[in-house]
Amino acid sequence: MAKSTLSFVCQNCGAAYNRWQGKCDACGEWNTLAEEDTTGATSMPASIRSKRKSRVFALESLSGKSVDAPRLPTGMAELDRVTGGGFVRGSVLLVGGDPGIGKSTLLTQATSVLARAGHRAVYISGEEAIAQVRLRAERLGLANAPVQLAAETSVEDIIATLSEGTVPRLVVIDSIQTMWTDTVESAPGTVTQVRASAQALIRFAKRSGAAVILVGHVTKDGQIAGPRVVEHMVDAVLSFEGEGSQQFRILRSVKNRFGPTDEIGVFEMTGLGLREVTNPSELFLSERDLGSPGTAVFAGIEGTRPVLVELQALVAPTSLGTPRRAVVGWDSSRLSMVLAVLEAHCGVKLSGYDVYFNVAGGLRIQEPAADLAAAAALVSSLANAPLPTDAVYFGEISLSGAVRPVAQTSARLKEAAKLGFGRAILPESARGDVGGDAGLSLNTVGGLTSLVAEIAARGTPRKGARQSTEEDDDGDSRDTSHGKNAAPPRFRRQER
Ligand code: TYD
Ligand code: MG
Predict the structure, then answer these.
(1) Among all ligands shown, which has an atom nearest to the Cα of 242?
(2) Which of 19, 208, 290, 490 is most buried per CB count within 10 Å?
(3) What is the CA radius of gyration of the chain?
(4) What is this structure's pTM?
């Protein structure tokens, strides 16, 4: 007989300990250990386990015929882009995100689209009552979609129900933290339960060929088991992100066994649900603060798509011994690197200043190509010198202060020209990548020093600023309309 084993399981990462301790050694989180009975943690009752005989199976070779993963496109272009062309049959996808970000809304919309196209689509809500889900569907104008709805939390009951009749094409489980299986003893929401429930649902997906979507809340305090323990079990992990105060939502693929992991899907939360944003650049630039210092437009690439976004920097004299460095939407070590290069090679003294850095619209940038735009925004803020409103920036900065070329120069330039920008500030060596007429004037920079000097020469010092730039006291020197293409480009919001 199996010994009853009580152990302390980290609710963040799933590591198990014999005794309680304040900090999880595996993931470093505090106060995440909870006592759990892990006797039946294999999600198979001991009685069955002991009776089960081993079975010999055939081993296969790597080559051989296998059909292409059959996909189920939803027709929601932004969602399909991130999944890699639609949900794969028999696969399990985890959609993670903060509570209230719009996961239920997105998946209600996706199931409705598929149900309307004649597929059997099932939505199991473990969090909300049927009436609440109906209310949402009504608000979205999807109340008449033939989605099969249930408010259930028992994994065994759910699988039994789904196994009846035609195999469902899409099953949404909202959320995995509310599910429980009676094969393990722990309370719903604990790591052991979440893991066992996910395992059962994954087995169901593989066996039946249904595409299963698990919703998971990301919580920091460890009260509910984070979906991290499920991440390695599923085929794909999508993360739904956004700033609570902003209406943009970004769906990002974190892991995908069947598709790309660098694509993003952009949505806007409206009163009528999530609206797809087909041209994210227009949205990210729609509320631009034209002509104020500390902002630069970065011509980036997200997956296969060029995306223009505004980078904002605020460099302000500090009153602290150690100045603050706060970053939203970018890698903080990348910012430190750019600041160090500015100090070491361009004579920009930043040790007496707090630096705040933000990527507009809730986008998170991972490309090193953002270095040049970030540096321009930082220097612009420090020197109180607005950058030309019709310029985009991109290029990687090396530790020596050189500006290095980045991939997909022409795609970036094309997008900038399309949105009405007049000039691009880019690495010298990228000029060769521009085939023919770029549609906008190109200012190449070889090193960061020349760019800094050029920006600083336009600035007016702020009161109390300790930075010494080429200054004149004439307030008119803030004029940004230099160059013949200085008319601000079009940043109109998309018509709804
Ligand atoms: P929801 O999908 O319930 O979030 P999650 O499942 O990730 O917890 O969405 C919650 C928020 O979205 C809620 O604050 C209200 C807002 N919302 C809209 O703005 N418009 C809508 O049409 C809907 C359905 C929700
Ligand atoms: Mg929800």
Answers:
(1) 1
(2) 208
(3) 27
(4) 0.75
- Range 71-278 has CATH code 3.40.630.30: no
Q: Which residue has the tokens 């309307």?
A: 116
Rounded distance from Cα 235 to ligand 1 centre (Å)? 26
Could you tell which of 140, 251, 269 is best to mutate to test the pocket of ligand 1, judged by most ligand atoms within 8 Å of the CB?
Answer: 269
Q: Reply yes or no on domain 283-465+477-491 having CATH 3.30.230.10.
A: yes
What proportion of the chain, given as a percentage, has pLDDT over 90? 46
Tell the residue nearest (CA) to atom 12 of ligand 1. 102
The CA-to-CA distance between both ends of the chain, in Å, stands at 65
- Whether pLDDT at 317 is above 80: yes
The 3-state DSSP composition of the chain as helix, strand, coil percent (nearest 5) reads 30, 25, 50
Q: How far is the CA of 99 from the centre of ligand 1 (A)?
A: 9
- Average pLDDT of the residues in 235-262: 84
* Residue nearest atom 11 in ligand 1 by C-alpha distance: 100
Q: Show the beta-strand stretches assigned E in 279-340.
A: 295-302, 305-317, 325-328
Virtual torsion, Cα 34, 37, 43, 48, nearest 10 deg:
180
Average predicted confidence (pLDDT) for the chain: 83
Mean pLDDT of 420-443: 83
User: Any idea which of 20-29, 327-336, 381-390 has the lowest mean pLDDT?
Assistant: 20-29
